[in-house]
Amino acid sequence: MEIKDLMNPSVVTIEPTSSAALAARLLSRHNVGVLPVCGEDRKLRGVVTDRDIVLRCVAAEEDPAQTLVREIMTRGCATVSPQDDCRAATQLMARQQVRRLPVVEEGKLVGIISLADLARSHRFDMEAAQALGEMRGVERFGQSLLPMDETLILGAVDLSGRGMLCWDMALPTDKVGTFDTELAKEFWLAFTRKAGCTLHLRKVAGENSHHILEGVFKAAGRSLKQAVALTGDDDIPSTKGSLV
Predict the structure, then answer these.
(1) 157 by DSSP, 3-state: which?
(2) How far is CA 65 from the centre of its chain?
């Protein structure tokens, strides 16, 4: 069976000049795990995932609204063509530890194929199972109590595999410049759902909306940086032996 027989030709994409915040919203809105990055010519430049947003934007304490997708995307990603064999695609997923592959023809994106697509065929169950990676060798938990002038923000994260946002953040104003402050919560809600993590963000003190929001992103970034730090072993950070 060829890739074209199982692939999804309707792909949600994003442009390289779009923001990381938009990427997070698209990931959440369409319930997808990866966005191919394409220009108007449909040529594939790379892909952006929730992990890219976590490690290269949030953990680096960058502003998602100001960070461009091209600055955090994964370049040189593995791809397949419509004529490739599906079994070869599952083997490629296993080697790369990915769950989706862009389908490219003559350099242009024509579709995407996922483990779910392969599993529905019931012919590649063993190979698909091998492509499912486990989160091993990371701390899992992280926390930060971050002061910023009169503001004090508490952030804590658990890479639990379950998306949950606990938001206790009264903001004094509706806008900071041209930015709608209510969008901050929507960003983190989309982030936690797609990243599969539990994130607590609480304002302990603060009167300035700019300081509060900046503190939120920095506290979350520092917490996530702790949580994804390598422990030096290959253990799954759960007494159950898996994160679900």
Answers:
(1) strand
(2) 15
pLDDT in tens, the chain (244 residues): 889 888 989 999 999 999 999 999 998 888 787 899 999 899 999 999 888 898 899 888 899 999 999 999 999 889 999 999 888 888 888 777 777 899 999 989 999 998 767 755 545 444 444 444 456 677 889 999 999 999 999 999 998 888 899 999 999 999 998 889 999 999 999 888 877 889 999 999 999 999 999 999 999 999 988 888 867 665 666 666 555 5
- E strands in 117-195: 141-148, 151-158, 164-168, 175-176, 179-180
Element (H, E) at 62: none
Whether the Cβ atoms of residue 52 and residue 73 lie closer than 8 Å to each other: yes
**Closest-CA residue to 59 (of 199, 236, 231):** 199
Closest C-alpha among 3, 1, 2 to residue 111: 3
Q: Can you give the C-alpha Rg of the chain in angstroms? A: 19
- Rounded to two decimals, the pTM is 0.56
Q: List for the chain the helix, strand, coil content (%; round to 5).
A: 35, 30, 40
200 forms beta bridges with: 156, 166
